[in-house]
Each structure stands twice: as structure tokens, then as C-alpha cells.
Specification:
The complex is a heterotrimer of chains A (470), B (610) and C (449).
Chain A (H helix, E strand, L loop, with lengths): L1 H17 L4 H22 L3 E9 L4 E7 L1 H20 L5 H19 L3 H10 L1 H11 L4 H28 L8 H6 L4 H18 L8 H8 L5 H8 L3 H12 L1 H27 L4 H21 L3 H32 L10 H4 L1 H15 L6 H15 L1 H8 L1 H17 L13 H18 L2 H18 L4
Antiparallel strand pairs in A: 1-2
Chain B lengths: L1 H18 L7 H23 L2 E9 L2 E7 L1 H24 L6 H20 L3 H19 L6 H32 L4 H10 L7 H15 L8 H4 L5 H10 L4 H8 L1 H4 L3 H22 L5 H22 L2 H28 L12 H4 L1 H15 L5 H15 L5 H26 L14 H16 L13 H5 L13 H27 L8 H11 L4 H46 L6 H21 L1
Antiparallel strand pairs in B: 1-2
Helix pairs in contact in B: 1-2, 1-4, 2-3, 2-4, 3-4, 3-10, 3-15, 3-20, 4-5, 5-6, 5-10, 6-8, 8-11, 10-15, 11-15, 13-14, 13-19, 14-15, 14-18, 14-19, 15-17, 15-18, 15-20, 17-19, 17-20, 18-19, 18-22, 19-22
Chain C lengths: L1 H19 L2 H18 L6 E3 L4 E3 L1 H28 L3 H19 L4 H19 L5 H32 L10 H19 L7 H8 L2 H26 L4 H21 L5 H18 L6 H26 L7 H4 L2 H4 L1 H15 L5 H15 L3 H27 L12 H19 L2 H7 L7
Antiparallel strand pairs in C: 1-2
The chains are: A mainly alpha (470), B mainly alpha (610), C mainly alpha (449).
Chain lengths: 470, 610, 449
């Protein structure tokens, strides 16, 4: 089951590359199926579907996959996000969608791998479709943006490869299986260096200040439909990487680094939200907004507490849904106005009330309004972060004020004020996306237990490694 | 049952929000009002049944989704749904023919649902859902007429300023979670009761929660959003920005009274903030010319009184005042609404006057409300306000200083209440309109409210007379040691209070009834101008906080570009190094051969000397 | 032994047949011979002959396989280029076959003299091949390669002599010490560093790669590299990595990854760019020699590298009209031939070491050996320079994919060449997803008996 979940998107992606006309349908069907599979895995509990097959046995590399609570939650969130993306896009190149499907396998693999090299394999494998999405379908400045994205990613991940090798060979493990590595942890100076190698890679991918500079251009240059941005949002797996790999493998080094990491996360959270206020373009606004969320999520995970880790991961999974939704929403705006300018007109709520309501809903989720999907993660992150550092919690969570300012300003500039140029309200298929997005985001806000219980289960081991904390 | 109370108005919100435009007037209003009435009846039933509980375990890890219908929440819910219902009914008339008719009632029902969530919450995060939910409702309703930029800006201002307080609430919860390992209110209360030593950091937690209350209840220094919130339709001002939502801060303090009763220092500052707010807003109210802004400042001032009461430890008195205030302030707003309605949108009191002749019914409502606000003896406001003023002497965290300032503020209150009444209803009509009385759907709710504004105070009278509220609420509130005053002293203070109120009423009447016919002293004019600007609080915030923050956003954006440029230059440096290295590749064979031999020699020599 | 015979006879027959038969026949003869060798190789038993001078062990078999594969690819994709540029066609194939024979000899011995003989057998046809296009650029390349190759061969020869002086043996693995042995090691390694294109002996590579006909460059970058590393691995392990040899190698790796990658940044010609990339990759392969079990890593890396860079050069050979491949020629390739562009993409991403392509596993295995050898500093440095490499690969890709073409019209690819390209591209992906499929073939014992 888990193998089908993992490789179905890739198969569908290859098929879609060959027959681009089918891409959208294939994508919808595939991600619907993977969503169901992920849901079943979520229900199974434990590390569902754990499989260990030699991939390069002599070198200690295994195809080891399984879905614990975190893996299943993210598999579901990824499937749902990609499904929503397929639902939202209209009249886009089929091959672009095919690349998205190929990338989905890489993304799922990141969350389901239990072998460090296999994880790295998926981590990097997702990069190629991501680069192609940007390079083939991006805007005028796509090449510099692409180069920047690639180089930042590769600096981090290549160093992480050295860290991965060190973790095994200096630590004396038999293989790259997580269970082996956790039984032979690398400590001392080598452990610290290896930890920072991991940390660098994940800080680029989180992203955290000051390694985030690739991100605004990445989003600004991607295809205006927002499809590639959804994939890019899902690719921001750094916080998860800290949770699953960097911290459990090097707990001592993490303890020493914790104050600095908390500071970076807090600076990211507040700084990005603040900068978002000054943006005049949908993609850049959302990029900075999402960046701020990543800082908050990182605060949760860096707290080293169970509740904080659950919060950080919850936020990561949920934000993919509504941030992705907003990117797609921005795509609709582009279809209507032919530009990504934030406020090409004003007073639009008069002509397009449903569009306005959907926008407000998604923005409010992003702001972390309680009762919507953005809140539980943010809230639990705060609970955890406070236990680690009240000061950085205060600093980082001041972002909630800035978030309200940028989100509402952006919303009001377009929808409030005297009616200007009128465009079509939600129509036809857009209603399907809107309904589903609202249901999913609302459901997670009202009944967060659906995600938080499995996450809490998985986070218990994380805390046990660090020794204590709630 | 509890859930149903909340879900009914929420259902109304969903129905009206999705399909509202298919209903014809006044169906949405009737539907919305009916649902609130049902909720009200459910709460009454709950009150008679003696409360209820509802919980979903591990809603978040270790945190249940808990609702609790105890006496405190039922008391508050009665106020919310009761007054809320009346204002819903009033709005059926007030909002008639507005293009956003059904949208208005959708928001209104949403507000009630969120307010009930806030009230019934037995877990701080659940309360926070309601807390931010009412904030959202407030945002939506202030900006209801969104086509005016001014209204949209006011709405955003309200939300953002509230968020500052909400940050305090959020962090306060984080600290409480650290201290107690749970956020269920009743569980924390039990933990506090059973532990002998208070955990360190409790005072900070109390302060942070209080910060949330400051934001929501528009206390100094976060009071600036409330006057601007008058941009919304008048029923909104009555329901949200007077009777219910803004008292959520007081409710939070009362709900957490077990915390604050153990924190004398924090309580002291709550009282100080309350008193400063009460005084500040009373002074500012004297400078307002907008009929609604006068009442808005008065609301801030009255909320200050409630905080004063909560600060000195008199939680039940604070809640008593919440109730009486809900009656007379809703009444004042709704009669203002009738006046505005009658004058076709005119809000400046300088172009009113003499409306007693044109709007006899509304005049009576206004008079009842104003006198109750002013503390005219035996009216509702008199009893609750005087209970607060005397509580500063008898309750544990009080003091004589508090008493004096509170009394002085009571004088000012009476004065500006009369100013409002006199400028609107007495004298000659100074405008050009043709005033007409409101329809019954608007006056009938006001009749009920007027009854409340006059008689609600008799629910809790000083000893030795009856007091129904204190014993009713006692189980839900923290127990504080009260230094009982002798009945003689108590009644003496009451007389002093009555005298001050009457003096204020007379001063206001005498000064303002011929305000436009004589020269006003220059010092008073400059005071009035300053008061009109809220003593420049907005200007100060804009100059020193808001604008710098906006500028900083642009500056940070530029810095981010700068950081980007830094990386770029680093990369360019590597490229330049690469170009320089590539120049070694001259293309001359002799040079290459030389290099090969030279390096072979270097290797050989290195090997030898090693 | 049988493979050597196959290759030798192929070359001989091709040279003779060229006198009477048409080019077409010679071509097919060579291809058939190479294919036969390729198919036969896995079934060749491990053996040694001539009193230990000939040694067909697992390592030799693996690297010969890579070399023959490279030669076959060069032969298959070269025809179109030959026709476009009017090069001597039958000589191309015959020389290729001879060179491959030399390659096999070089890989199949642990004796220094035989290695030298193999080296010359490999190199002499290559000098001619490099100059085969008869234009100044090509002649310059051939001459440069010849002159510098002679210098390097001399250095190696001198090292060989000193080795005999220090140990009394030409066989690798003989124990020696003292200054004489150290100088011998220095010179032997320097000679092989030259062939493998490790800085500071790599100066010839960019000029020769650029000037030589593109299919020849393909062979140089893949087959020659395999042979050079076969010898280098044996020599390096034979003289011992613990002593001065390890220090030489470490310095060379450091300089190679630094110089190769950084200098590549400044290039505006695709073949020259890949030449620098080839230099850099030599550094990564050499990293594997630090480990306790270098043979599989070196072999697998060379396979991965041969497939990837072979694919890249094969694509360039289709684009090249005989004047090299400045970036302008590659521009907008995706519009002219999506298939070629897609293959270039696979090749370059594989060279950059990104999964799920075979290049990742090559790098991975080499780095594992470096890690097991404790060379973490070198490893981290090499990885950082790999980021620079990723940049210039992306630059080339950006030309091919994201810019409008200068030249109009499609590109014609011969069916056989297309088949070969498709097969290699398939292997690049398939071995990336299932690295274990052929790993067993490379998982052989030591490199020195």
C-alpha cells in the first residue's frame, strides 16, 4: 500500500508526460487515490507499512519506508494540497502538471523514508522537477531565480551528504537505516560538525534567515497559475528534517545550538511577516508570509518539546494547504487581471462577493485565526517555544500582529473601497476548489485532533531522545 | 446543549452567508433574531437546569475542547443573548433596504456564536477561538460599509490593535501551560486551590492575559480602536462595541479570578489602568461632537470602571456593572441610531437639538439611558457604579486614592451624559432635516432596554437590602476577603455618590443647555479641541509607532534585497576567481610542459625532504 | 585474454580491411568487434598469464567494460559528425579499436612496464584521432596532446625506473622506502595524474578536448579516463596510500576540484566546459582511492561518469558542425530537438550528482570511501566545489532550455546513434533508480594482487 502511495504519482507523471492532455485528470485521480491510501495509513497507527529492502546492500543503503503519524499526516496533506492544485488550475501546460506529479513522489519519499540515504535520494530527486517547473514555465527572470534556488539548495544538501556519511562511518553504524543510526549516535566535535551540516541544509530548505533569500524570487518567478508554488511550498521540508533527522541523530549538538536556532527562527518569523507588509505583488506577499510561518514552525520544533514539535509539524502540514490555496487563488487573480499586482482594482467585494469571501477565509487561515487550520500549529508552537525561550517566543510571535496587518491590508486594498473594475465572481469549477479548500481548512481548525493525535504519538519518541519536556 | 446554543446562531451565519441573497427582506433578519431567541431560551433553560458541561478530550495534545455552563457563563450568556436578541430585532428596522441586509445578519449571528463560544469556554484556547472570532466579527461589521475607505481602515485598525492584546493572551496561555501542564480553566483552578505554593511566573501569566483584556476592552493604552469602530452600523456599536464584546476583557478577568485574587500586584495595576482609562475617556467624551463617539468614549470610561472593580477584587460588582451597562449603553446607542435614522444619517450633535419635539419616544429612551449612565439615584447605573466606588474602600486591593478619582470621574460621567442629552434633545433644532420617529420594530426593543436601564439595578442592592447577584455568582468566582463596611458607612457613601451624580447632572445641564448662546471660555475651548482628538493618542501612535513600523517594513524589505545582493557579490567573487584561474590556461605547449615538469619536480622534492 | 584478442583482431582487421572495403563495412566490423567484447566480458573468468604480467581480475574486467562501452558509444554516435566534417572515416574506427585495445591492456596489468606499454598503445592512436579533422584546431589539439603526452610518459618512465631501483621489481605492491622510492612514487603518480587529468597535470585537457573532434573527445573523457584510473588505482594502492602517496593524491584532489570547477565558470564553449568538468570529476573519483575498498567505487563512478558525460558529449556531437560547440549552438536546443535537450538535461543533472540519476550513486560511493578513509575535510571541500559545478551545468542547461535558438531548423539524428543515445539515457535513469542492478559486477576485491 505504502509503495503504491509512493510511486503511483511518478507513474502517473511519466504517463502524463507522454500524454499531456490527460495530465489534469491523471493528477486528480492519482492524488485522490494517494489521499485515500494516506488516510488508511493514518488509521493504521504505529509505523504503518514499514518495509526494508536492500537497495545497495553492500553500501548499507536500504529501501526502508514506513508511515508513522508524521509520515501519514504529511502524505495526506501533500495529497490534499496537490489535489487542490489540480482542481484549481485551468488551461495550463499538461507537461507542467506532469512534472508536479513526478515531484509528488519525491515529496512523499522525503516523509516516508527510514533510511538516511534514501531520504537524501528523495530530497534531491524532488529538486529536478522543481527546477524544471521554474525553468520551463517561469517568468522573465526565471533563470537567475532558478540558479539561486539551486545553488542554495545544493550547498546545503551536499554538505548534508558529508554529514550523512559521517553519521554512519564515524558513528559506527552498520547501515544508513534510521534504527541503526539512532543506536550508534555520533557525539563529540564530529557530531557537532555533522549536525551543522544537516542544519545548514534544512535551514536552506525551511527556509530560515539568513538563508531564505532564494525564496521570494523563486515564488515571484514561478508560473502565475500558482501550481508550481504549491509544489514549492510542499518542498519546504526543512523543519521536518530537523524533527526527523538532525535533532534525533545529534541531540547533544542540538542542545548546544538550540539558542541560536531559536533566535534564527524568531527573526525569520517576525522579519518576514514585517517585510510582507511592504510587498505589492501577490507572490512576494505570500512568499514572505509563508516564510514567516516557517519561522514559527521552526520555533515549535526547536523548542525540543512534544507540544512544540506537534505544533511545528501541524503548522507545516496545514500551511501547505492554505498557503498553497492562496497561491492558486493568486493564479485566479492573474487569470482575471492579467497581472499579479496585489490591488489591480478596488472594491471588488461588490462585484465578486464569493471570491472576496474565499480570499478572506484563506487569508484568515494564514493569519492563524482560531478555528481555522492555521491556528492549532501556531498555538502549539507557542506553547512549546515558551518553554524553551520566552524572549524569542515573544519576539517571534509578534509576527501575529504583523500578519494581521499585511493580510488584512492586502485583502482590503483589493476588495474594499469604492467599486472599481469588475471581474467575474467564482464560477463553475472554481466552486469545487473553494468548497473543498474551505472544508479542509475549516475541518482542521475545528477538529485538529485529526492531525495532532498522530503527530503527538510520533513526537513522543522525539522528546524521549532529548530527554523530557511535555 | 451548550454546543447547540452556539451552533444555532452559527447555523444562521452559514445559511445567511451562503444563501442569504435568495431571501427577501425581512426574512434574514427574522431568521437571525429567531435563532438568537432560541439560544436565549436555551440559556434560560440551562440556568434553570443548573448548568452543563461538554468536552472532547485531547482536542489538542493534552488540551480538551471543553465548554462549561456554570453560573458565571450562564449569567454572561443571558446578557449576550438577551440584549443580543433585542438588538437583532432593532436591526431588522434599522438595516431595512440596505443592499447588504442578509450579509449583516449573517455577521451578526456569527458574532453571537463566537461570543457564546467565548463565554462558555472552559479551556483558554477555546475561549481564544471565541475571542478572535468576535474580533473577526467586529472587523467585518465595522467595515460593513466597505465601500468607504475610512470604514475599511477603521475595521483593520480594530483588528490589528486587538491582535496586540491577543499576542498577550497567546503568550499568557503558553506560560500557564508551562506552569500547569494544561489549559483547561477548571483544572487550573483546582490545581491552584490544591497547591500551597504559587508557581513562580504566575504574575507574568496574569499580566499577559490582562494584556489581552486591555486590547479587547479598549483600555489605556490600547483604547484607540474603539472610537473609530463607530464606523459600523449603529446596532453593531450597540451590540459589539458596548454591550457584549468589549466586556469580554472583564469576563476574562472574572473567569480567571482565581488567578488574580492571588496576585495583588497585578490586581493593583489592573485597577490603576481601569481608573486611568475611566478618567481619560470621560474627559475625552466632553470634547466629542459625533453623537456616537460621545457614547463610544463613555463606553471606554465605563469599561474602565469595570476594570477598577475587577482590579480591587470585586469581581461580582464588575459583572453587575457589565449587565447594567449593557442595558443602558445599548439603549443609548440604539436611541442614537434612531436619531441618526430620523435625520437621514446626520451624526453631528451641533446640527441636532430640540429633538424632544420630533422624536418623543426616542427622547424618553435617551433620557432613561443618559440618566442611568449619569448615575441618577435609583436607576440601574447608580447602583452598579456606586457599588464600584464604594468597593474601592472595602475590597482588598482598593484604597482611598482610588475612591477619590473614581468619584471625580463619576462627576464627569454625569456631566457628559447630560451634555449628550441636552445637545441632542433639548434646545432648538439646529439642522435642516425633517426628523421622523422610528418604526415600532425599532422602538419596541428600546422600550425593553429602557426598563432594564431603569430597574436592573434592583437585582443587587447594598446591605441590608437584598442582593441576588453576589450569591448567585459566588461559586464561580474567587473568594476574596472583604472588609465589610458598616451599613451606615455604606449608605453614607451612597449618599455622597448620589450627591456627586446630581451635581454632575446639574452642571452638565446648566452648562450645555445654553452652550451655543454664549461665549465659552477659551481654556474650555482648547480643552474641548484636545478632547475631540482623544488627547492626541492617535497622533502619538501614528507618529511614533505606526508610521515608523510601516517605514521599517519597507526598510527591512530593502535590507533583504541587500542580503540577496551580498550573496550575489559572493558568487560573483567566486566567478572572478574562476576567470583568473582560467587564465593559467594560456594555450602554449611550452608553458604547459614547464608546469608539468615543475610540479613533477615539486612532488619529487617534497617526497625526498619529507 | 580472449577479450584482448578480440580487441586486437578488431583493430588489425579494421586497419587492413580499410584498404579494400568501403568505410561502411569497416565501421560495422569495428562495432561488431566492440559489441562482441562487451558481451563477452562478463563471462571472462578471472585469470592471469605471462607470469603475472597479464592480470584479468574483477577490477580489470569492470574497467575494461567501461572502456569498451565508451568506445562503442563513440563509434555509434560519431558517424554523423564524421560525415558533416569530412573526416577520414575508416581511420576513425580503426584507430578507435586500437586505442581500445591499449586501454584493455593498461587496465589488465599490475606490472608497471605493461602499464606503460598499454598507456602508449592507448595514446598513440589517440594523438592521431585528435588531429583527424585536418583543420588547425584539430591539428593543434593532436600536437599538444602528443607533445605533452610524451613529457608525461617520460616522467612516468623515469618513475618506473626509480621504482625498480628502489624495490628491485616492476610489479606493483613491492615494498620500498627511502627517498628514492618517494621520488619514484612522485613521478609515477605525476605521470598518471596527467593521463587522468588531475590538476596540476591537467593543462592539456581543456585545449585538447575543445580542439579534438567531438566523438574523440567523448572517448577521451570516458574511455581514457577509465584506463587512466585503472592504472592510477593500482599504482596508488600498490605504493600505499598511507605514506607520501596519499599526501600527493590529497593535494592533487584539492587542486583538481578547486581549479576544475572554478575555471569552468569562465567558459563559454560547451566542450571546453565539459573538459573542465572532466578534470573536476577526476578529483571526485580520486577521492575514492582514500578508502579501504576503492575498487567498486572507482569502477561504479567511472561507469556513471562514462554514461553521463558520454551522453553529454554524444548530444554535443549531434549539434557540432565541426567548429566546436559555443554556447550559441546549444541555445534553444529544446526547440530544435526536445529529445536531445532532454538527454542533455539527464546527462548534466547526473553529472551534477542529483538523484534519481546514476551520477548520484557514483558520487555517493566515492564519497563513502573518502569518509571511510577519514578524509572529511577534503570531502566537505569537494562537495562545496560540487555546488559550483552545479552552477555551470545549470548555465549550460539554461542555454539549452530557457533561451531562444539562434540557428533554425531541426537536428537530424541517425537511427543507430539515436538508439545508442536512448539506451545510455535509459541507463542513466535506470541505474539511478536501481543502483543495485549492476553494482555486483563492480563489487570486486582489491586492485593489487
Amino acid at each position: 500500500m505504502i509503495h503504491a502511495l509512493l510511486f503511483l504519482p511518478a507513474l502517473a507523471g511519466v504517463l502524463a508526460l507522454l500524454v499531456p492532455a490527460w495530465a489534469r485528470l491523471l493528477g486528480l485521480v492519482t492524488t485522490a487515490v494517494t489521499a485515500v491510501l494516506a488516510f488508511l495509513l493514518l488509521q493504521a497507527g504505529g509505523v504503518a507499512g514499514y518495509t526494508e529492502l536492500p537497495l545497495l546492500k553492500e553500501a548499507g543503503v536500504y529501501y526502508a519506508v514506513g508511515a508513522d503519524g508524521v509520515g501519514a499526516v504529511f502524505a495526506l496533506a501533500i495529497s490534499a494540497s496537490v489535489f487542490l492544485a489540480f482542481l484549481a488550475v485551468r488551461e495550463v501546460p499538461g507537461r507542467m502538471l506532469a512534472l508536479g506529479l513526478l515531484m509528488t513522489t519525491g515529496l512523499l519519499g522525503i516523509f516516508l523514508s527510514y533510511d538516511l540515504v534514501l531520504f537524501y535520494f528523495f530530497f534531491e530527486a524532488a529538486l529536478i522537477p522543481s527546477l524544471l517547473l521554474l525553468g520551463l514555465y517561469g517568468g522573465a527572470g526565471r533563470v537567475p531565480a532558478l540558479v539561486k534556488f539551486a545553488l542554495f539548495t545544493l550547498v546545503g544538501s551536499f554538505l548534508m551528504l558529508a554529514g550523512i556519511l559521517a553519521a554512519r562511518y564515524l558513528g559506527g553504524a552498520e547501515s544508513f537505516l534510521m534504527r541503526d543510526l539512532l543506536a550508534h549516535r555520533l557525539g563529540g566535535t564530529a557530531g557537532v560538525l555533522a549536525f551543522w551540516a544537516f542544519a545548514l541544509a534544512f535551514a536552506v530548505k525551511a527556509p530560515l534567515f539568513p538563508l531564505h533569500v532564494w525564496m521570494p524570487d523563486f515564488h515571484a518567478q514561478n508560473h502565475p497559475s500558482g501550481f508550481a508554488d504549491v509544489m514549492g511550498t510542499l518542498y519546504k521540508v526543512g523543519v521536518f528534517g530537523f524533527f526527523r533527522f538532525a535533532i534525533p541523530l545529534f541531540p547533544e549538538a542540538f542542545r548546544a545550538a538550540q539558542p541560536y536556532l531559536l533566535a534564527l527562527a524568531a527573526i525569520t518569523a517576525l522579519g518576514a511577516a514585517w517585510i510582507a507588509y511592504a510587498q505589492k505583488d501577490w507572490k512576494r506577499l505570500l512568499a514572505y508570509g509563508a516564510l514567516s510561518h516557517m519561522g514559527v514552525a521552526a520555533l515549535g520544533v526547536f523548542s525540543g518539546t512534544q507540544v512544540g514539535a506537534v505544533g511545528g509539524l501541524f503548522l507545516l502540514a496545514a500551511s501547505a494547504l492554505y498557503t498553497g490555496g492562496l497561491f492558486l487563488y493568486a493564479g485566479w487573480m492573474h487569470r482575471r487581471f492579467g497581472s499579479l499586482e496585489l490591488a489591480p482594482t478596488h472594491g471588488l467585494a461588490k462585484a465578486a462577493p464569493a471570491l472576496a469571501a474565499l480570499g478572506l477565509f484563506l487569508f484568515l487561515a494564514m493569519v492563524g485565526l482560531p478555528g481555522l487550520a492555521g491556528f492549532p500549529g501556531e498555538f502549539l508552537s507557542a506553547l512549546g517555544a515558551w518553554q524553551a525561550s520566552p524572549f524569542w517566543t515573544l519576539f517571534g510571535f509578534s509576527a501575529v500582529i504583523a500578519a494581521a496587518a499585511y493580510a488584512l491590508t492586502a485583502y482590503q486594498r483589493l476588495f474594499h473601497g469604492p467599486p472599481g473594475k469588475a471581474v467575474a465572481d467564482l464560477a463553475g469549477g472554481e466552486w469545487a476548489f473553494a468548497t473543498l479548500a474551505v472544508l479542509v481548512v475549516g475541518f482542521l481548525g475545528v477538529y485538529p485532533k485529526f492531525f495532532s493525535a498522530p503527530l503527538a504519538e510520533a513526537a513522543r519518541a522525539f522528546v524521549a531522545v532529548l530527554g523530557g519536556g511535555q | 446543549m451548550l454546543l447547540l446554543t452556539i451552533l444555532l446562531p452559527f447555523l444562521g451565519f452559514l445559511t445567511l452567508g451562503l444563501f442569504g441573497r435568495r431571501f427577501r427582506e425581512p426574512a434574514p433578519g427574522v431568521l437571525a433574531s429567531g435563532l438568537v431567541l432560541l439560544s436565549f431560551l436555551l440559556v434560560v433553560y440551562l440556568a434553570l437546569a443548573g448548568g452543563a458541561r461538554f468536552a472532547v478530550g485531547d482536542w489538542l495534545p493534552g488540551i480538551p475542547f471543553a465548554l462549561l455552563g456554570d453560573r458565571l457563563s450562564i449569567y454572561m450568556a443571558l446578557v449576550v443573548t438577551g440584549i443580543g436578541f433585542l438588538i437583532h430585532v432593532y436591526a431588522i428596522g434599522y438595516m431595512a433596504k440596505d443592499p447588504g441586509y442578509s450579509r449583516f445578519f449573517a455577521y451578526f449571528n456569527f458574532f453571537i456564536a463566537m461570543m457564546l463560544t467565548l463565554v462558555f469556554a472552559d479551556s483558554y484556547p477555546v475561549m481564544f477561538i471565541g475571542w478572535e472570532g468576535v474580533g473577526l466579527a467586529s472587523f467585518l461589521l465595522i467595515g460593513f460599509w466597505y465601500q468607504e475607505w475610512k470604514n475599511a481602515d477603521s475595521a483593520r485598525k480594530a483588528f490589528v490593535v486587538n491582535r496586540i492584546g491577543d499576542l498577550g493572551f497567546l503568550l499568557g496561555m503558553a506560560l500557564l501551560y508551562k506552569l500547569f501542564g494544561t489549559l483547561q480553566i477548571s483544572a487550573i483552578r483546582e490545581a491552584m486551590a490544591s497547591s500551597l505554593v504559587l508557581p513562580a511566573g504566575l504574575a507574568l501569566a496574569g499580566t499577559l492575559l490582562f494584556l489581552g483584556a486591555i486590547g479587547k476592552s479598549a483600555q489605556v493604552p490600547l483604547m484607540v480602536w474603539l472610537p473609530d469602530a463607530m464606523a459600523g452600523p449603529t446596532p453593531v456599536s450597540a451590540l459589539i462595541h458596548a454591550a457584549t464584546m468589549v466586556t469580554a476583557g472583564v469576563y476574562l478577568l472574572a473567569r480567571s479570578s482565581f488567578l488574580y485574587a492571588n496576585l495583588p500586584d497585578v490586581s493593583y495595576w489592573i485597577a490603576v489602568i481601569g481608573l486611568v482609562t475611566a478618567l481619560y475617556a470621560a474627559l475625552a467624551a466632553l470634547g466629542q461632537w459625533d453623537i456616537k463617539r460621545i457614547i463610544a468614549y463613555s463606553t471606554i470610561s465605563q469599561l474602565g470602571y469595570m476594570f477598577l472593580a475587577a482590579g480591587v477584587g470585586a469581581y461580582w460588582i464588575a459583572l453587575f456593572h457589565v449587565m447594567t451597562h449593557a442595558f443602558y449603553k445599548a439603549l443609548l446607542f440604539l436611541s442614537s441610531g434612531s436619531v441618526i435614522h430620523a435625520l437621514g444619517g446626520e451624526q453631528d450633535v451641533r446640527r441636532m437639538g430640540g429633538l424632544r419635539k420630533y422624536l418623543p419616544r426616542t427622547h424618553l429612551h435617551g433620557l432613561a439611558g443618559a440618566l442611568s449612565l449619569a448615575g441618577f439615584p435609583l436607576l440601574a447605573g447608580f447602583w452598579s457604579k456606586d457599588a464600584i466606588v464604594s468597593a474601592t474602600l472595602s475590597y482588598p486591593f482598593g484604597g482611598v486614592g482610588f475612591y477619590a478619582v473614581a468619584l471625580f470621574t463619576a462627576f464627569l460621567t454625569a456631566t457628559y451624559a447630560m451634555r449628550w442629552y441636552v445637545l441632542v434633545f433639548l434646545g432648538d433644532y439646529r439642522g435642516q432635516g425633517h426628523p421622523h420617529e422610528a418604526p415600532p420594530v425599532m422602538t419596541l426593543p428600546n422600550d425593553v432596554l429602557a426598563l432594564g436601564a431603569v430597574f436592573a439595578g434592583f437585582l443587587a442592592l447594598p446591605k441590608p437590602l437584598w442582593n441576588l447577584i453576589e450569591p448567585y455568582l459566588a461559586p464561580a468566582l474567587a473568594h476574596v476577603e472583604v472588609q465589610e463596611l458598616s451599613p451606615a458607612a455604606e449608605w453614607g457613601l451612597l449618599l455622597v455618590g448620589a450627591a456627586v451624580a446630581l451635581a454632575g447632572i446639574y452642571a452638565g445641564y446648566a452648562f450645555f443647555s445654553n452652550y451655543f448662546r454664549r461665549r465659552v471660555p477659551a481654556w474650555y475651548q482648547s480643552f474641548e479641541r484636545a478632547g475631540e482628538q482623544g488627547f492626541y493618542a492617535d497622533w502619538l501612535y501614528n507618529t511614533f509607532l505606526v508610521n515608523p513600523a510601516k517605514e521599517l517594513a519597507f526598510f527591512l524589505g530593502l535590507s533583504d534585497r541587500g542580503l540577496d545582493g551580498g550573496y550575489r557579490y559572493g558568487a560573483l567573487g567566486v566567478a572572478a576567481l574562476g576567470r583568473w584561474l582560467a587564465r593559467l590556461q594560456t594555450g602554449y605547449v611550452r608553458f604547459y610542459a614547464l608546469l608539468v615538469l615543475a610540479f613533477a619536480a615539486v612532488f619529487a622534492i617534497w617526497g625526498v625532504i619529507r | 585474454m580472449s577479450v584482448l584478442w578480440i580487441l586486437f583482431l578488431t583493430g588489425l582487421l579494421a586497419a587492413l580491411a580499410g584498404l579494400w572495403w568501403p568505410e561502411r563495412a569497416v565501421r560495422n566490423l569495428v562495432r561488431a568487434g566492440l559489441l562482441l567484447a562487451l558481451v563477452w566480458l562478463p563471462f571472462v573468468p578471472e585469470q592471469s598469464g605471462f607470469g603475472g604480467l597479464f592480470l584479468m581480475d574483477g577490477f580489470a574486467r569492470a574497467l575494461t567494460l567501461v572502456g569498451v562501452l565508451a568506445a562503442l558509444l563513440a563509434s555509434l554516435v560519431g558517424s554523423g559528425y564524421l560525415e558533416r566534417t569530412g573526416m577520414g572515416a575508416f581511420e576513425y574506427h580503426a584507430l578507435l579499436a586500437f586505442s581500445t585495445f591499449g586501454l584493455a591492456v593498461m587496465a589488465s596489468s599490475a606490472n608497471l612496464v605493461v602499464i606503460l606499454v598499454g598507456l602508449e598503445l592507448l595514446s598513440l592512436p589517440l594523438y592521431a584521432l585528435a588531429a583527424l579533422r585536418y583543420d588547425p584546431a584539430s591539428e593543434e589539439a593532436g600536437l599538444k596532446y602528443f607533445l605533452l603526452g610524451a613529457v608525461a610518459a617520460a616522467v612516468f618512465f623515469y618513475g618506473l625506473v626509480l621504482h625498480f631501483g628502489a624495490t628491485g621489481s616492476f610489479a606493483l605492491g613491492a615494498v620500498g622506502k627511502g627517498p628514492l622510492f618517494a621520488v619514484a612514487v612522485a613521478l609515477l603518480l605525476a605521470g598518471l595524474f596527467f593521463k587522468a587529468a588531475l590538476t596540476p597535470f591537467s593543462w592539456w585537457a581543456p585545449d585538447v578536448y575543445q580542439g579534438a573532434p567531438t566523438p574523440v573527445t567523448l572517448f577521451m573523457a570516458t574511455g581514457v579516463k577509465a584506463a587512466a584510473f585503472a592504472a592510477l588505482a593500482r599504482v596508488a594502492v600498490g605504493v600505499g596510500m598511507g605514506g607520501i602517496g596519499g599526501a600527493f593524491l590529497a593535494l592533487a584532489v584539492l587542486l583538481t576540484v578547486f581549479f576544475g570547477n572554478l575555471a569552468a565558470l569562465a567558459q563559454g564553449e560547451a566542450k571546453r566546459l565539459l573538459a573542465y568538468s572532466s578534470v573536476a570529476h577526476a578529483g571526485y573519483i580520486a577521492l575514492a582511492l582514500f578508502g579501504p575498498d576503492p575498487a567498486p567505487a572507482v569502477g561504479y563512478y567511472l561507469l556513471a561518469y562514462a554514461l553521463s558525460t558520454g551522453l553529454a558529449f554524444a548530444v554535443l556531437a549531434q549539434v557540432d558542425g565541426g567548429r566546436g560547440v559555443p554556447f550559441g549552438e546549444v541555445r534553444g536546443l529544446v526547440r530544435r530537438s526536445p529529445m536531445l535537450a532532454g538527454m542533455l538535461l539527464l546527462a548534466l543533472f547526473s553529472l551534477a550528482g542529483l538523484p534519481p540519476l546514476v551520477g548520484f550513486w557514483g558520487k555517493y560511493l566515492a564519497f563513502v570511501q573518502a569518509a571511510r578513509g577519514g578524509q572529511y575535510g577534503l570531502l566537505a571541500f569537494a562537495l562545496l566545489t560540487a555546488v559550483v559545478a552545479a552552477y555551470y551545468y545549470l548555465r549550460l542547461l539554461a542555454q539549452a532550455f530557457f533561451l531562444e535558438p539562434e540557428a533554425k531548423g531541426g537536428l537530424e539524428v541517425r537511427p543507430l546513434a539515436a538508439l545508442a543515445l536512448g539506451l545510455v539515457a535509459f541507463l542513466v535513469v535506470a541505474l539511478g533508480v536501481f543502483p543495485g542492478a549492476v553494482y555486483g559486477f563492480f563489487n570486486v576485491g582489491g586492485v593489487v594482487p
